[in-house]
Structure formats: structure tokens, C-alpha cells
Backbone:
């Protein structure tokens, strides 16, 4: 405003005063919010965060025999995190967790692709004959249809629960061991 004042007496009288005010303005929040594309970038980030959240079901399903829950730190901005739950028969359940190793937008699109592959495979299983589902058939399917660089970009955890047989099948790639705490006894570590 002072630079464009009509009256010369109201304008800057020295270049050092002008440079001082410009440097203060350059470092201000007002300047950063007025940058071209700033709002557009913020909108894009919100869209990507919403898309990332929509990859996974909320809330966790409520199943007989199995208690499920989802805990996620709200402070984490983890684009591409994918988890899913499938009730295969009244007493068999599948829980999946895939987490991208890299940060950025690529993991979001890769997670969406992975979700589509898993959901289409599981829809076929549930539609045809869910009683014949083998716990590792999904892992074999993914191994055959996903290229190596894609797999290297994800950590995957797969948990198949059979309440009738009182059996648990665990597969983890890129994750640590699973800690199982049975009723009435101490914890035990399950490894691949």
C-alpha cells in the first residue's frame, strides 16, 4: 500500500525501508497463503487423504466369534494404508493389512490397485464356493499377478481365522512377528 500511495510523502523514502518491509512480508503467513496454487495443493491433499481413507472399511465389522477393532493415530498422514475384513463362512474370517513402504502419491494408486485385485478375487470366492477357500490361495493369486517391484513397495499381513477348527493362519511380508495372547495364558510369538 505504501509503495502505491498517491502522495509522494506517504511512499517509502528509502530503499532500505522498502526492502525491510518486503522481507517481513515474504516470511509472513499471509504471503504463504497468497501463493498461486496454495489452495489448489491443499484441496488435492484433502482429496488424496479422503481417497486413502476410503480404501478401507470403517468401522470394523462386528462378527460372532471374533472381536475386531481399528486403532489408527490421527496424527499420521499415511497415504495408501489398506486394510480389509472378509467373512468367508459363518465361522471363517480373513483380515488383511497392506502398508506402503514409500511415501507419496504412488502408494495411494498402488493400494487402490491392490484393493481392487483382492476384492475381485474375494468376490469370486464368496460367490462360487466359500467353503472350499484355502487360506493361502489369495497369497498364491497375488504372487502370480503382482510384479516384483510392486510387492517390494508394500508390507502385507494376512490373518485367516477358523473358529470351527480353532485355527489361525498368519502370513506376513515386511512386518514383524504376530503376538498371540490366548485366553488364560501368556503371550506367544507367531513367525512366518
Residues:
Amino acid at each position: 500500500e505504501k509503495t502505491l500511495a498517491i502522495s509522494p510523502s506517504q511512499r517509502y523514502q528509502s530503499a532500505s525501508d522498502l526492502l525491510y518491509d518486503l522481507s517481513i512480508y515474504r516470511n509472513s503467513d499471509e504471503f504463504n497463503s497468497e501463493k498461486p496454487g496454495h489452495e489448489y495443493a491443499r484441496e488435492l491433499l484433502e482429496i488424496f487423504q479422503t481417497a486413502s481413507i476410503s480404501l478401507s472399511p470403517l468401522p470394523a465389522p462386528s462378527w460372532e466369534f471374533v472381536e475386531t477393532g481399528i486403532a489408527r493415530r490421527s496424527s499420521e498422514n499415511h497415504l495408501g494404508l489398506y486394510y480389509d475384513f472378509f467373512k468367508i463362512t459363518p465361522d471363517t474370517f480373513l483380515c488383511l493389512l497392506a502398508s506402503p513402504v514409500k511415501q507419496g502419491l504412488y502408494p495411494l494408486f498402488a493400494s487402490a490397485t491392490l484393493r481392487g485385485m483382492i476384492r475381485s478375487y474375494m468376490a469370486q470366492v464368496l460367490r462360487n464356493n466359500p467353503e472350499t477357500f484355502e487360506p493361502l490361495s489369495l497369497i498364491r493369486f497375488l504372487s502370480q499377478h503382482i510384479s516384483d517391484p510392486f510387492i517390494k513397495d508394500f508390507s502385507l499381513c494376512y490373518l485367516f481365522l477358523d473358529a470351527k477348527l480353532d485355527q489361525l493362519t498368519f502370513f506376513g511380508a515386511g512386518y514383524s512377528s504376530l503376538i498371540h495372547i490366548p485366553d488364560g495364558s501368556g503371550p506367544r510369538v507367531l513367525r512366518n
